[in-house]
Each structure stands twice: as structure tokens, then as C-alpha cells.
Amino acid sequence: YFCPRWGQTVSPPQSDQLKAPFDRDYDLFFPLFSGIAEDDNLQSMLVGAVMRKIKSRTWKKQRYFKLEDDCMTIWYKSKKAGNAHSTFSVSDVEAIREGHQSEVLLSIADEFPAERCFTMVFRGRRANLDLVAESAEEAESWIRGMRKLIENLENMGEREKLDQWIWDWFKKADKNNDGRMNFKEVQNLLKMMNVDMNEQHAHRLFTMADKSQSGTLEDDEFVLFYKMLTQREDVLRVFQRYSADGQKLSLSDLDHFLREEQLVGDNVQQYAKQLIELYEPSDRAKLLNAMTFDGFLMYLGSAEGSIFSPQRRGVYQDMSQPLCHYFISSSHNTYLMEDQLRGQSSVEGYIRALKRGCRCVEVDCWDGANGEPIVYHGHTFTSKILFKDVVSAVGKYAFKVSDYPVILSIENHCSVEQQRVMAQHLNHILGDKLLKSTLDGKAPIRLPSPEVSCAVHGPPNPASFSIVPAGFVAKRRLSKELSDCVVYCKSVRFNSFKHARIHSKVYEVASFTEYKARKHLREAGTEFVLHNSRQLTRVYPSGFRTDSSNFGPQEMWNAGCQIVALNFQTAGEGMDLNDGLFSQNGRCGYVLKPSFMREVEKTFDPEMPQKLDGYNPVMLNIQVISGQQLPKVNIKEDSIVDPLVRVEIHGVPTDQAKQETRYIDNNGFNPVWYDTLRFTIHTPDLAMVRFVVEDYDKTSKNDFVGQYTLPLTCMQQGYRHIYLLSKDGTSIPPSSLFVHIRITGLK
Length: 747
Prior knowledge:
Mean pLDDT: 88
Strand order of the largest sheet: 15-14-13-16-17-18-19-20-21-12-22
Organism: Scophthalmus maximus
EC number: 3.1.4.11
Helix content: 25-40%
GO cellular component, one term: nucleus
Distance between the termini: 54 Å
Subcellular location: Cytoplasm; Endoplasmic reticulum; Membrane; Nucleus
Protein name: Phosphoinositide phospholipase C
């Protein structure tokens, strides 16, 4: 097979132990940016440029930046730092913003023109990189070049991501940059990759791969070494169980596998043909309507073979029901980047939340200097930002990832005079995006749907999707101008469920601290669920959480609470569950509640789900088979992960459970468990499943390695890969788990 990076043909090894079924191809296509020679922007980046790195109005320092030859790494250094330098991967960069699109660059707008400025936005919670180029042309080259590289990465399949990961390790191990590795470098590479292998076996593989007998591994030889290292015996076992001749899966074999294991029900043979066409690399096998082991492995590693059902990724739910029938992705103290005592306030908090699909953001407003309202956490040392800058950011980013309405939760501490300024900014900056009246011009008797709200001004048009102010107002006299901005979400004091049932209007919203909501759930769970079938409820973290930690949102979802506001800036279990729930339905920020939480004639008590009419419990069986290329968590060179997998069920109280596999000694590269975990789930429609990988430590708390969370209703059955996420919720390719899932009814 032709290896495009080096222009060499890669041949399979000859050892009988390494022969794979049916014409297996030992190819490894290291990523190469196509058309690099013709791309002037990338050529300019390869040469490099001196740019100013800006941290504040007073911190502006020159750095030399260049794109390395792999077209995947940005290298930079200070002129005064001697040989010291830093690097970051293009894959770490989420987006490029041109001009004065950050608070830092806005602060120096009078010094440097917008056409020379741009911002690199990193994934997760890493701070942005603000840069000023020496010329507008140079800035344009970097902006266009980076966007092209990011687009190239986003279009990569799982196989290409794996190849990139291998190439990154090759570069790390090749200490003297001569394009080859001696045995000592290979030993160091194995430790870096979480592989604990005895020296004799490692040397045997090294010798087998060293076909030139040069004592080093060069390009194609390293490919062979990696292939030998990553033999998937677990997948091969499944392949050979269903292969009639042990060499390939015929169309009939694949059909059998898809029916028996993956539980594909309709048009199975047609689906099998599609899989062969999509994932089979061998033209010879395609002609025979067959799938080789390589094709089988590629299918299982694809989106089709992942644990998350592709049918649940896009918008698949009914979006025409009233807002109170949906769980709504919601943020608390959205302006904060850190804790709520001394943390930084920034419009970046709104941008990041909205780009994660958040549909309800919070704005704490206070009187500011020069008649301009400000946003910050009152009576603390958190920094302050202008209300109008927040509104501008919301207006710009509200509908980048979702077409559905955004709710502005406004906590108002402003004087009447500055409330009028707030109203002016809302109307002037948001314009037609701001919902200013009921949809039919009459007093509301029913909350609007997400679908109707986003099409209120004509055909769905991104310029006219609705931003809905919500009046979560403090004890201040309210100006008419600001009051007129609140249409469907008026904050009211909650008295009791009985009082609300008799007196409340559909547009009134109750707001509870986590403790108050928990008390209502404990004392009157059924009534709480019923209340939330008619009206919106907002739940927010206790003021005692000064570290901006989160409560568990699941118990609030169990009561049907729609606006469960979390600190998006704080990683952990709470945000994992939130990201998991809203990863379905197109990541649009709205998830339709189960029917028993929407219908007023139904009675559902989260404490006693078995009393529900239509009670339908299930048994969830998860066989944790293996892990692949788990990230190293300890910076010590000799440290290797001892991984275990914990599966957690989050749902109604009777469903809350967790079980663990054994831990595997010194193997984070390809650990194998074959451990089966079993759970009884009483309310499947509310259950979330969280897979957590940890590095076992018998003397201290286990270290976090990775996690993946999804709704039970979005799980595919059969043999599936789970691609792990970091603590920040970002992907860490190619780290994955291989599992077998089976869900069976208990009635």
C-alpha cells in the first residue's frame, strides 16, 4: 500500500503469527494536508512570523510563531528566551475569530487596527490566545490558514484521527529528529504510550519490523511495528465467530452478525451492503460482497459502530410542544470563568455556553459608572463587564449551533434609570431577534413551542430566531421599558403547588435553590412533576457553592424541572450529565420530556416509579471488553496506567447505581477485561449511563482518565466502541472502550 506522507510502499510482515484473514492490508496513512504547495497561506505559516501576544492593555510581547512541517503543530518562542519554546496542536484550536472579538483585543482597539488582530479559541476551558500581526496581510494568512487546517481536521474519520495520533507519538519518540527510531527510543515510546512490555518481547517485535536490519525503524517499518503492537484480538474473536471460512465475512455472515449481535431489524441485507461499500478497504472483497477484518474493524470504529445511535444525533423529537414540556440546557452565573468570589467575568462565558448548545443564560445586572449597567457577581471581588457587551455577544452567538430560542435569565439589581438603559440595549442590539410580544398578540393561554418561537417572524431565518428575556428580578422597582421586554417568562414568588394550580398563569416561572427544589421533591414529588407539566421551573446552585461547583442535575430532571442551571465553567459529573443529556436531538439545547411528565392525567412519583401506568423496567447488561490507547495521567515517565472502568446509572432514586470492573496492572494501551456489569432500570426514559475510566491507586484516590455519558434511550446494542472525553468534555482520540450492550425487558 502506498504511504502518502513518504511516498513508499508498505508491505505486510511475513510472520505466520501476524498474518490476518483475507488479504489484510498493512497500511497506515499518516495525515498530510493536501495541496499544501499551492496554498500561499500555509506556505506563509511554514515560514513563520513575529506577532504580538496580548494578555492585557499593558502586557504585549513579541513571539515568533510558525507552523511545523507536519501541518499539525504550531511552534512559538520568545526572542529573549534563548532555545526555550512552546508548541500546541492545531487540534486544540476550536475556532479563529478575526478582529477585535475578545475583551483583551477590544481593550487595545485604539492601538492596533482590527484587520491585524485575531484570536485563537481553544477547546475546553483553556484561555484564548490573542495575537496582533505586523500587517493585515499576515493576519489574513494566519486566519485563513488556521481555518483551513481546522476544517481539514474536522473532516477526518476515526481512522485518520488514529493515524494522526500515531504520527504524534512517532515525533515525540524521535528525540534527535532523524526520522528513525532506535530500540532505546522505542522503549521510551512504549512507556509514553502506557505499554508495559518486557524488553525481550519488545526487542522481538522491533527486530521483526526492522526489515532493513539497520538497527532502527524507519517510516514503513514503524508502521509494521505499530500494527504488531495493536493487534485487536478481541475484535478478531468476534469476526471469526461469524466468519464461515475464518477469512472474511460474506454478505450472509455479515447479515447474521447484524441481526444477532447489533439487533438491526429492517432491511438488514441492504444495510450490510452499505457497510461494505462504506468501510471495506479491499476492492477485491467489495467485488465479492464481502468484508475483511480491516473493514470490520473500521465499521466498529465508525459512527455506525459507536454506542450512540446515529438516529438520535440530529433533531428527531417533536419540537411543536409548549416550552414547559422540554428539558432546557441552562447556565448559572454564565459570565463567570472561575469561582464566584474572585473569578474573572467575561463575555467569553456566554460565547462558550451558547456554543455548547446552552439555551438559557444568566445575566446579573448592577448599576455601573457613566450610566452603563454592568454584569458581575454582586458584593464580591469578581471582575465586571458591560451589560451591552453581554447582549452583543448573545446576539452574535445565540444561533450558531442551535436554531431554537434562547432565554435571558436577568437578575436585576439596577436603578430604574439604568434599567431603561438595559431595555435600550436589548432593543437596539438584538433588534428583530428579541421577542417583544406574544406570538398572536393576545394574552398567552399556553406557552409557545421552540419551533413556533424560532419561526415567529416568517420562514425560519437565522436573523429572526427569538431571544426571550426572563424576569428573574430582585427586589427593585421595575421600569416599564424593561418590564415590556418580558413576555413569556415572568418571575413570581412561589407559595405552594396548590396555590400555583389555582392561581398561576402559564407564563409565570418559579425559581428555586437546589435545597428548596430538593425539599419539594422529597415532600411532594408527584405534585412537583405535575406542576412542571404546566409551567417552567428554574433550579440553581446554592449560594454556598463559592467554588462554582455543581449539584447533580438528575434529581431535578426527575421532577420535570426544565431550567436546571449549572456552572458551565466547572468540569465534573454535573456537566458530564448535562452534556450527555443534550448530546441528542441535534445538540439543540431542548430535549422533550417523557410523555408521563407532560400529560396532566398521568401521575408519576420519582420515588415510586413502579406505580406508573405503563411501568416498563429493563435489565441493562454491559460487558466491558477492552480499552484502547488510554491517555497517560501521571507525568512521571515510568508511570503506566492501571485502568478500571466504572459504569454509573443516574436516574430516579431506585435506579441510582454504580459497578466497577477489575483494574488491570500497568496497561493503559490495550487493557482487556471481559467483565460483565448488570443493572435493573425502573425508569429507562430518565436514565443516564456514565462510563468512567480511572487509574487505580491503592494508597490514594484514583486518578480520572476519561469518561463518556449518554441517555440510555440513545444507546445502540451489540458490540460498540465508546470514544472517551476529557474532564473538560473534549475528545481525546483515539482513546476508547470496546463493549457489548444488551437491554432486555423485565415484564
